[in-house]
Amino acid sequence: MPERELEAHPAALIAQLVRERKFCAAARLYAAETGADLIESKLAIDRIAHRHGFAPISGCASYFLLLLVFVGTGTWMLAEVVLRLL
Fold first, then answer.
1. Per residue in 31-55, pLDDT tens?
2. Which of 1, 69, 9 is nearest to 36 (CA)?
3. 44, 5 Cβ separation under 8 angstroms
4. What residue ranges do the domains of the chain occupy?
5. pLDDT (mean) for 14-26
6. Is 45 exposed, middle or buried (0-12, 13-18, 19+ CB in 10 A)?
7. Structure pTM?
């Protein structure tokens, strides 16, 4: 499954995040830019990392870390909404 098309700037930023080994942030940016779901984003970032010579976190650990990022972000957004309503 090939990666979805990205504009030049987001693609460069994703590559930079991969080089810095910030795979969760790269997957989140990839999902935001392409509209891909969580699993597709993770697989695309794994392929990009492999292309750049990095071995991303493998197996269940990577999915767990990605889940923590998305749950944490959602919790923070929910807290902001609740605080604004008060």
1. 888 888 878 888 888 888 888 777 6
2. 1
3. no
4. 8-85
5. 82
6. buried
7. 0.54
